[in-house]
């Protein structure tokens, strides 16, 4: 079936957000939530093939990608991003739909489900962060496995407040090569996405780096609410993911009707690193939910 694409903009508090709908299959739509905060839809490009079965919605959250980039720091809150997603969903007229979040997108997906559960068919939590405390602990564990000289550079610049230095960014790359993206060649869409990042959004809500948390999301923890998920849920991560497998499995164990999958050749981006397997798992999960 030929895919039919539609692009547009929706007005939300703070500006306009860009969206694209890919595919014209008859299944309930899938709304994708990119990571970050402040990443963009480019990182989720492999999910386009799911449009054979259903409309797949990509959008750039305010502050990144093709969406507006206002300079009002007060906009960068979880509540506003939840409101933004609801406005988009209503504008598109998608009552019954699936939600797929990646990384920060799983936090947004979780909070969205808790406040707007009606019509949500399933929740797909890819490389999730449900507890900041667990995330930081896992990242620190991995950090201690880095070469001592790399750790020393990180410690020095974090203490001095010079995390924008080239030396710190080079040290950060050592972590990322192990626990974010393990491919020898970075996909073009990922590179493009890096250029479209909303750096201010990330720094405001998260902090200087994945493992140095100073932003407004500090203290976030919805692990105590996982029992409230009343729809089928799919949790997944890579074997080397900064979203550590034992933590993601724990999230799944707290969720009533859930499945848990580990992609053995992946870090934080299995949809790129184990692309065929990842797409197959998501495809089969969605079809199973639709047919139930």
In what range is the share of β-strand residues? 15-25%
- Are there runs of 5+ residues with pLDDT below 50, and where? none
Q: Based on helices, strands and strand pairing, what is the structural class?
A: alpha/beta
Strand tally is 8
What is the helix fraction of residues, given as a range? 25-40%
Mean of residue pLDDT values: 96
CATH-defined architecture: 3-Layer(aba) Sandwich
Q: Which CATH class is shown?
A: Alpha Beta
Domains (count): 1
Taking the sheet with the most strands, its summary is:
8 strands, mixed
Q: What quaternary form is this?
A: single chain
CATH superfamily: Alpha/Beta hydrolase fold, catalytic domain
Q: What would the principal axes of the Cα set say about the shape?
A: globular
Keywords: Hydrolase
Family: Belongs to the peptidase S33 family.
Domain AB hydrolase-1: 28-274
Pfam family, one: Abhydrolase_1
Please provide a written account of the structure.
The protein is of the alpha/beta class and 292 residues long. It has a single domain (5-134, 186-291), classed as Alpha/Beta hydrolase fold, catalytic domain (Rossmann fold, 3-Layer(aba) Sandwich), CATH 3.40.50. The protein is 38% helix and 17% strand. The chain contains 10 helices and 8 strands. An 8-stranded mixed sheet has the order 1-2-4-3-5-6-7-8, with helices on both faces. β5 (97-102), α2 (104-115) and β6 form a beta-alpha-beta unit. α1 (78-92) packs across α2 (104-115) and α4 packs across α5 (166-179). The longest helix has 17 residues, at 275-291. The model has no long low-confidence stretch (mean pLDDT 96). One of its GO terms (biological process) is proteolysis. Belongs to the peptidase S33 family. This is AB hydrolase-1 domain-containing protein.
